[in-house]
Amino acid sequence: MTLEVALFPCLSDNYGFLLHDAQTGATAAIDTPDAKEIAKQCEARGWTLTEIWNTHWHPDHAGGNVALKRRYNCHVRGPNQDAIPARDETLSGGDSFDFAGHHVDVIHTPGHTDEHIIYHLPSAELAFVGDTIFALGCGRLFEGTPQEMWESLSKLMALPEQTRLYCAHEYTLSNAKFAMSVDGDNPDLIAAVTDAQAKRAANIPTVPTTVGIEKRANPFVTAGNAEELGRRRALKDNF
């Protein structure tokens, strides 16, 4: 496998991601929270940005598109929302494309936003999930419904358990506090929280997580249905 993922902090709690194919030199930024930091990370590695893949329109995910497009003339892919700046290619759930010989599936995951999408690379056993799911959490329902988020999480949980999920924010410790308040007797949750606390104490990212961990520890997945997810999401919004 010639793919490498570079993960680095951006803004206050975002992560930036660069996906690089060593054989071809192709490099994709998954979302663009901070154009200057993304360019800095590319330069430090000797990589040239060739693509941008947006998961949704929020400024902390697409705000760097214009500057990076201007600098690298890279190809910008994103969901069908007018607020995606400098987009060259519109993607919808069920679409797929090739990245340096690697197959990429596009999965529609509404809930956080109506047209939120994720990028799944089956051969690499990884997915870039934006703000649909976090380690021990899920995105706020700014545009969607609990039913939509439940269906979106169910799509993710149908992926192989070893699939690494690259979530876009470092929210895990705050998510852990809430998760323990609603499912504190869950041994899988307790193990995940202990691991997250140790990583953050050592300043190690808790991203990526995996489908297997979230299937058993994430309170919005273990909710079991859309109604309970909605109840827990409302509690979390005011936690």
From TrEMBL:
<dbReference type="InterPro" id="IPR017782">
    <property type="entry name" value="Hydroxyacylglutathione_Hdrlase"/>
</dbReference>
<feature type="binding site">
    <location>
        <position position="131"/>
    </location>
    <ligand>
        <name>Zn(2+) 1</name>
    </ligand>
</feature>
<feature type="binding site">
    <location>
        <position position="169"/>
    </location>
    <ligand>
        <name>Zn(2+) 2</name>
    </ligand>
</feature>
<keyword id="KW-0378">Hydrolase</keyword>
<dbReference type="InterPro" id="IPR032282">
    <property type="entry name" value="HAGH_C"/>
</dbReference>
<feature type="binding site">
    <location>
        <position position="60"/>
    </location>
    <ligand>
        <name>Zn(2+) 2</name>
    </ligand>
</feature>
<feature type="binding site">
    <location>
        <position position="112"/>
    </location>
    <ligand>
        <name>Zn(2+) 1</name>
    </ligand>
</feature>
<comment type="function">
    <text>Thiolesterase that catalyzes the hydrolysis of S-D-lactoyl-glutathione to form glutathione and D-lactic acid.</text>
</comment>
<dbReference type="InterPro" id="IPR050110">
    <property type="entry name" value="Glyoxalase_II_hydrolase"/>
</dbReference>
<dbReference type="GO" id="GO:0019243">
    <property type="term" value="P:methylglyoxal catabolic process to D-lactate via S-lactoyl-glutathione"/>
</dbReference>
<comment type="subunit">
    <text>Monomer.</text>
</comment>
<feature type="binding site">
    <location>
        <position position="58"/>
    </location>
    <ligand>
        <name>Zn(2+) 1</name>
    </ligand>
</feature>
<feature type="domain" description="Metallo-beta-lactamase">
    <location>
        <begin position="13"/>
        <end position="169"/>
    </location>
</feature>
<keyword id="KW-0862">Zinc</keyword>
<feature type="binding site">
    <location>
        <position position="56"/>
    </location>
    <ligand>
        <name>Zn(2+) 1</name>
    </ligand>
</feature>
<comment type="pathway">
    <text>Secondary metabolite metabolism; methylglyoxal degradation; (R)-lactate from methylglyoxal: step 2/2.</text>
</comment>
<dbReference type="GO" id="GO:0046872">
    <property type="term" value="F:metal ion binding"/>
</dbReference>
<dbReference type="GO" id="GO:0004416">
    <property type="term" value="F:hydroxyacylglutathione hydrolase activity"/>
</dbReference>
<dbReference type="Pfam" id="PF00753">
    <property type="entry name" value="Lactamase_B"/>
</dbReference>
<dbReference type="Pfam" id="PF16123">
    <property type="entry name" value="HAGH_C"/>
</dbReference>
<dbReference type="InterPro" id="IPR035680">
    <property type="entry name" value="Clx_II_MBL"/>
</dbReference>
<feature type="binding site">
    <location>
        <position position="131"/>
    </location>
    <ligand>
        <name>Zn(2+) 2</name>
    </ligand>
</feature>
<comment type="similarity">
    <text>Belongs to the metallo-beta-lactamase superfamily. Glyoxalase II family.</text>
</comment>
<keyword id="KW-0479">Metal-binding</keyword>
<dbReference type="InterPro" id="IPR036866">
    <property type="entry name" value="RibonucZ/Hydroxyglut_hydro"/>
</dbReference>
<feature type="binding site">
    <location>
        <position position="61"/>
    </location>
    <ligand>
        <name>Zn(2+) 2</name>
    </ligand>
</feature>
<protein>
    <recommendedName>
        <fullName>Hydroxyacylglutathione hydrolase</fullName>
        <ecNumber>3.1.2.6</ecNumber>
    </recommendedName>
</protein>
<dbReference type="InterPro" id="IPR001279">
    <property type="entry name" value="Metallo-B-lactamas"/>
</dbReference>
